[in-house]
Amino acid sequence: MAVFPQLRLRRLRRSAPLRALIRENRVDVGDLIYPMFIAEGRGLKQEITSMPGIFRYSPDQLSREIEEVASLKIPAVLLFGIPEDKDETGSSAYRPEGVIPQAIRAIKKSAPEMLVITDVCLCEYTSHGHCGIVVNGQVDNDRTLPLLAKMAILHVAAGADIVAPSDMMDGRVKAVREVLDEKGFQHIPILSYAAKYASAYYGPFREAAGSVPQFGDRRAYQMDPPNVREALREVEQDIAEGADIIMVKPALAYLDVIRQVRDTFNYPLAAYNVSGEYAMVKAAAQRGWLDEQSVVLETLTAIKRAGADIILTYHAKDAARWLRIT
Ligand code: PBG
Ligand code: ZN
Questions:
Q1: Considering every ligand atom, which ligand is closest to the CA of 205?
Q2: CATH class of 27-244
Q3: For the segment 121-162, what is each residue's pLDDT rounded down to a tens digit?
Q4: Pocket of ligand 1, beta carbon within 6 A
Q5: What residues does each domain of the chain span?
Q6: Which residues contact 217 (CB under 8 A, 6 or more apart)?
Q7: Which residues, at least 6 apart from 291, have a Cβ–Cβ distance to it below 8 Å?
């Protein structure tokens, strides 16, 4: 093996074209999914305080934003619904004329090619803010499953291309797959939030969606942050139940989890660069404490280097622009 002075690792760093030639990982706009908040009502476009640049849109206000996302060549959006009425069982989540079916139809009208992915979970729709049905102060796993399945069917019937269950109930992928197949939607993939941690980085999202749990927290269903072997078991289960794409969430504090999942399973792997990760960068950039463009592109590249194929990120529109010019 050559060593210094014959070997000089700096040789391949001398110019931009050389660096480009030996680059190991790249972010491509085709890897990105843009998450969007859809609020029930009309004429709404409200910026989310803790997520500058991210808005809640009502379905009738979506067309311009969707056309912009499409023109940037971002292939997919992920939709979160914020209903006007919340109740104990999250019944607005499975109303055929609910906010998400309306949004899907509006998006398909403005950008028929856009992949529409829907988040399937009850927490934005329940008055208590938990991801399932609460019985005696606990989220009841098995009573929640049929409601998630019902929600998934409704989204797909309205035109969703992929469904993404994010509730962390056991058996939810199986429940959703079974009902999709039964109703003739064998071709619709499931993107499962397989290793989803009980993370403080979801704070801004909960403000955006009004889904802060009214009692307790989500630790009895989302994963405990110190665990990684358990994440592999979660992923294994979801694959066994029929997941087509698996996800690790959040991304930055869990890059080791992304790497281990990548090395263990041959499935397309997504990572969710969550609301708190976005808010931190925005807050520092607004104060001029760091260079937003460089930090975002470095971060997205790190998520790819850890092993993700797909990145869900609120930075998607900016990143798409910056990737064109860098
Ligand atoms: C709903 C859901 C959450 C996120 C995605 N789907 C919130 C939560 O679990 O509390 C978080 C996304 C983000 O922080 O950007 N279950
Ligand atoms: Zn939830």
A1: 1
A2: alpha beta
A3: 999 999 999 999 999 999 999 999 999 999 999 999 999 999
A4: 119, 121, 123, 131, 166-167, 202, 205-206, 218, 274-275
A5: 27-244
A6: 198
A7: 285
